[in-house]
Amino acid sequence: MAIDTLGVVRDGERSHDPSREGGRSAARCVGLTKRYADVVAVDNLDMEVRASECFGVLGPNGAGKTTTVEILEGLTTPDRGTVEVLGEAWGRGHDRALRERLGVQLQETQFSEKVTVAETMRLFRSFYRRGRDVEELLRLVSLEEKRGSLIGKLSGGQKQRLALACALAGAPELLFLDEPTTGLDPQARLQLWDIVENFRAGGGTILLTTHYMEEAARLCDRVAIMDHGRVITLDTPAALVASLGAEQIVEMSVTGELSEREIARLRGVTVVRRREGGAYSLTVGDIATALPALLDELARQEVKLETLSTHEATLEDVFVSLTGRNLRDG
Amino acid sequence: MGEANEILVNDRGARNEREGARVGREGRGGHGGESYRPLVELTLVRVREFVREKEAVFWTFIFPVLLACALGIAFRNSGPERVRVAVEAAPGAGATAAAQTAAALAKSPGVEVLSLSPEESARALRAGKVSLVVVAGAAAEPNDATDVPDAGSTLQGGLAQTDFAYRYDPTRPESRAARLEVDAALARARGRPDAVAAREEQVTASGARYIDFLVPGLIGLNLMGSGMWSLGFSIVVARGRKLLKRFAATPMRRTDYLLSFILSRLAFLFLEVAAVLGFAWLVFGVRVHGSVAGVGLVALLGAMAFSGLGLLVAARPTTIEGVSGLMNFVMLPMWLLSGTFFSADRFPAAVQPFVKALPLTAANDALRALINDGAPLASQWPQLTILVLWALVSFVVALRIFQWQ
Q1: Are residues B112 and B137 in the same domain?
Q2: Which chain A positions have a beta carbon within 8 Å of B48's beta carbon?
Q3: A133 closest CB neighbour out of B33, B245, B405
Q4: Which of B232, B263, B324, B404 is the most buried (most CB within 10 A)?
Q5: Of B33, B34, B251, the CB nearest to A128
Q6: Which helix (H) or strand (E) holds A196?
């Protein structure tokens, strides 16, 4: 009997089937499809979340992240495909037992405003047969001092932390977080990340959706990038960035006609991508050789350079290179 | 993700180890020192939400008392009601005859007289302000059936030169009563003795006043209103806030959620009923002639029937507008037909089975029987059965069709 950092109870009573441990899947779906009217939200999707990892689903709004997660949570029924969560399937008469083992945070739940933090916490704790005490949960998300405050008086970050505490109320094995930090200020986001990392450190499994690449890069062991209801690539954040074959990204905008082909031939430049309004994004292997050559070439073509910036390649650039769009373009 | 973070995580790890030892004892097997019962917690949250909403408290407790007060004063028994009639001068006739007629009628205690011009009296008759128009000095026109359904008598002596016509709507009971009253008054003014002299015995029994009739109806109406609005709105709001979906993602039992609404209603039910009954007793002397416990039981079953209906109405709508429409659709027939403000027996026999099957009719009838007539509770078994059926059927159907998203 031991209790991990964040409420993951591990003892004989918890389903501790050895065949499910280490490297095996905590959640898996095959051939998942969900249509809404004329929109295909999820399109023949395969995905596997391994036990004890933090798995990120990164993609723009409308990519199908929420639909996928809600199907895994048993809240939405897929049109096609199979789902397995902690070795169980939904709708086979074990739903309540399965929900005891899951923690869920939805994208936009608003708790009743006239109820206090502690009362809300008690309510959610009461739904689970086992889990931590209310005070313990409040301490985990640093809301002890707000225990008597009405929900209506909380800040956005405090509400999100309460939502997270409610998701942790039953000491879940698998935690679903749907865009947990959307709309939060940087400090509130850092606080939330700490809590998630703690849960992860305690051996819990997390499935997290986000459209913040820095969130996925920091929290996730593996990241699936989703677009138009499909997974377009899946790997560790580092491997995804490395797959660009680049260390640096050069963003620039110019006035005048630029020959992209000439630029692409320059030493060290791997990809040239035209963005709207005379803006270009260059994928560059070695910035030290590529940059002088680029400036010489611009001068030769008699094109006026307006802005230029460089940064290390990120998951955002992976998304751009795969789709030609920015994550936040939607 | 530098060293600073690692230190932070390690630090937390150490702290959690210490806590873990303590929690390990408390939380063994997941059952902590505290026990949590979902139905209790859900009900408590509902009760707190209600108490912290000042408007809800006003509409549930204060409003029915104010309504009883206003209606009780408006319809208080201040002697027998007098018939209101208008007197107008016939075309061509002088004002003297009309003035004499009005003076003669004013002597009669049962008649209230207004002297009006023909246009005014026509308008007053149409609007029901007067029940009858006496046309003084008109020539008798027995054949004119449209304007003058009944020709007036031609009198001898005193007002002998005056011809009268009564203009009224014979389908209105108060107009027919006015006709008899006016006829008798004019005959007396002419000096004719009453053909039959009967002794009058007037009765105003406690329990037969309008306020006595009204109070049980107001209790019934309040049971319906607070049951349906409070449940319907809070469920639809929770659905709109995605709170229902969040609950659906927990192992919470669906029945616990719906039952908590009914239980929280019961927490306030007796206060609500006591507020109206106590007020009516103190201010108007309305007494409960039957068993108080029986009244409590009827109120309980009524509240459950209306809570069930509230759950049913709120089972699917996602917007306040949607649920309000449905609510009105369900409640309007009961406002009109269930005999809150006047007796439902007045409706045609053909609709009586429908009227009797409505939960508000059942609640009102049973409450009146117990409060006004002192009837034994057992005699109200048909009404109680109707209430129980409504409660059971609506709850089961609501649970079936309930949308959590």
Answers
A1: yes
A2: 114-115, 119
A3: B33
A4: B232
A5: B251
A6: helix A186-201
B241 contacts in chain A (CB < 8 Å) = 109-112
Q: What is the DSSP letter of A275?
A: -
Nearest CA in chain B to A172: B250
| Distance (Å, whole) CA B221 – CA B240 | 28
Distance CA B56, CA B234 (A): 11
CATH number at residue A263: 3.30.70.100
Burial of residue B330 (CB within 10 Å: 0-12, 13-18, 19+) is middle
- A129 SS3 class: coil
Q: Which candidate from A99, A130, A218 shows the least CB-CB separation from B30?
A: A130
CA-based nearest residue to A324, from A236, A232, A230, A252 = A232
| Contacting residues for A33 by C-beta, under 8 A, at least 6 apart | A40, A42, A43, A44, A45, A78, A79, A80, A81
How many Cα atoms occupy the beta-carbon half-sphere of B158 within 13 Å?
Answer: 13
Mutate to test the interface with A, among B36, B37, B235 (most CBs of A within 10 A): B36
Residue A145 shares a structural domain with residue A266: no
CA distance to partner chain A, nearest, from residue B22 (Å):
10
| Residues B248 and B361 reside in one and the same domain | yes
Looking at residue B118, which CATH number applies to its domain? 3.40.190.10
User: Hunting for tokens 């947990």 — which residue is that?
Assistant: A180
Q: Please report residues of B whose CB lies closer than 8 A to that of A1.
A: 24, 28
Domain that holds residue A249: 245-312
Number of domains in chain A: 2
Q: Which residues of A touch B29 (CB under 8 A)?
A: 11, 13, 130
pLDDT digits (tens, 9 = 90+) for A267-321: 888 888 888 778 888 888 878 888 888 898 888 888 888 899 888 888 888 888 7
Quick one: tokens of B142?
């027995």
The predicted complex's ipTM stands at: 0.81
pLDDT in tens, A204-240: 999 999 888 889 889 999 999 998 999 998 999 888 8
Please give the helix or strand (H or E) that residue A224 lies within, else none.
strand A222-227
Q: From CA A196, how far away is CA A194, in angstroms rounded?
A: 5
Going from the first residue of chain B to its last (405 residues), give the mean pLDDT of each consecutive group of 10, the final group possibly shorter.
35 38 36 74 92 83 83 70 84 78 83 85 87 75 42 46 82 86 83 71 67 90 88 90 94 92 87 89 87 93 94 93 93 90 85 92 94 90 96 93 90
B120 and B46: one domain?
no
Which of B1, B6, B16, B49 to probe the A interface (max A CBs under 10 A)? B16
**Domain assignment of residue B124, given as a range:** 83-189
- Interval A138-147: pLDDT, tens: 998 999 999 9
Amino acid at A126: S
